[in-house]
């Protein structure tokens, strides 16, 4: 997969050498609160997360979460991409940024690029996104991208999430 370039960002596939950054991101209090605690506490666990998560997804589905880098500095900022989850009927948009990059439009820029990539390269008719009910910033972002709330679901025991969907069906022509 070639990197995706936007005005300010590079989205590229993860490699095992990204384990130090993924260790930091997955242990951000905001990640644990708004997404989940992946239980990744060591570099070895971070490498295993990458191997069993994004890298396995690339091999199985041809897409997954990408590392989000600042285009000017090359510094890692977060992750964003398309995930095929067993619990969902359609591909899911996922993203997480380190808190110092919140509120600057980076998540929206990365999400828009991921949606467009999915439309063009995967021919998706729709795209889902799941979000914790209390994550108002992510809900605002999804609504700004024209995702519409379709309901709620129990994603894991005791973990109810809101489900949003973006209809891409009429955009696949041309």
What is the CATH superfamily label? Gcn5-related N-acetyltransferase (GNAT)
The name of the CATH architecture is: 3-Layer(aba) Sandwich
The biggest sheet amounts to:
5 strands, antiparallel
What Rg is obtained from the alpha carbons, in whole angstroms? 15 Å
What quaternary form is this? single chain
CATH topology: Aminopeptidase
CATH class: Alpha Beta
Task: Describe what you observe in this structure.
- The structure is a single chain.
- Helices cover about 35% and strands about 30% of the residues.
- It has about 170 residues and is α+β, with helices and mostly antiparallel strands.
- It has a single domain (about 5-170), classed as Gcn5-related N-acetyltransferase (GNAT) (Aminopeptidase), CATH 3.40.630.
- The protein has a 5-stranded antiparallel β-sheet, sandwiched between helices.
- The longest helix is centred in the N-terminal third of the chain and has 19 residues, at about 45-60.
- The mean pLDDT is about 95.
Q: What's the SSE blueprint?
A:
Elements: E1 4-5, E2 9-13, H1 19-26, H2 29-34, H3 43-61, E3 65-70, E4 76-83, E5 92-97, H4 106-122, E6 126-131, H5 136-144, E7 148-156, E8 159-167
Antiparallel strand pairs: 1-2, 2-3, 3-4, 4-5, 6-8, 7-8
Q: Main attributes?
A:
single chain, alpha+beta, Aminopeptidase, five-stranded antiparallel β-sheet, three-stranded antiparallel β-sheet, 5 helices
TL;DR of this structure?
By secondary structure, the protein is an alpha+beta fold. The chain is built from five helices and eight strands, in the order ββαααβββαβαββ. The radius of gyration is 15 Å and the shape is globular.
